[in-house]
Amino acid sequence: MAKVLMYTSAYCPYCTNAERLLSSKGVTDIEKIQVDSAPELRIAMMAKTGRRTVPQIYIGEHHVGGFDDLRALDLAGDLDQLLGA
């Protein structure tokens, strides 16, 4: 299974939904970078992704985007392949 990295914050319902969706696909290990407690991490996330909001999800080296992007991948049938499931 591909490595999953997620930029997140403490109280983020979209982050929770993304975790649930990934868990339903068999993902058991998500590397989380919590950006709300360290402004420099948010700045790094914005520089890397070009986006300000969380979650920002990477599967392997592929930047998926946020929860809506992750869900769209799943609905299109492409998420399983990206995860390597």
- Overall number of strands: 4
State the fourth-level CATH superfamily: Glutaredoxin
The gross shape turns out to be globular
User: How much strand content do the residues show?
Assistant: 15-25%
Number of helices, counting only DSSP H or I runs of 4 residues or more:
4
Helix content: 40-55%
Average predicted local confidence, pLDDT = 96
- Backbone CA Rg: 12 Å
End-to-end C-alpha gap: 6 Å
The top level CATH class name: Alpha Beta
Largest pleated sheet: 4 strands, mixed
CATH architecture assignment name:
3-Layer(aba) Sandwich
Order of helices and strands: EHEHEEHH
State the secondary-structure class. Answer: alpha+beta
Notes on the protein architecture:
The protein has 85 residues and is of the alpha+beta class. It has one domain (4-83): Glutaredoxin, CATH 3.40.30.10. It contains 4 helices and 4 strands. A 4-stranded mixed β-sheet has the order 2-1-3-4, sandwiched between helices. Strand 3 (56-59) and strand 4 (62-65) form a beta hairpin. Helix 1 (13-24) packs parallel to helix 3. The chain is globular. The N and C termini lie close together (6 Å).
Descriptive labels:
85 residues, alpha+beta, Glutaredoxin, four-stranded mixed β-sheet, 4 strands
